[in-house]
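Prompt: Have a read of the protein record below and flag anything odd:
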Amino acid sequence: MATKPKSGFSQKSNGGFSNYSSNDSVDVGNDSKSDTPALILIVILLIVILLFLPLLAWMYTDVRKMEIRVDKALTRIEGK
């Protein structure tokens, strides 16, 4: 009589799916609705930061240039 060699794998097929239950805390891929508000908030914050940082930098340089002009004008006035 010929016998089949025993393998360590189960003979049952589960269709390629794992045996994890749906309430497993590691199973992140199934519940994407809970991530949506956080993702939208992060995207909005990034847009706000990327828009306002150049604006603030431009305002700072503009104020700094004006301050330099005022200092030069004051030294000219005081020199006369």
In short: The CA atoms of residues 8 and 14 lie 16 Å apart. The chain has a mean pLDDT of 78. The two ends are 119 Å apart (CA to CA).
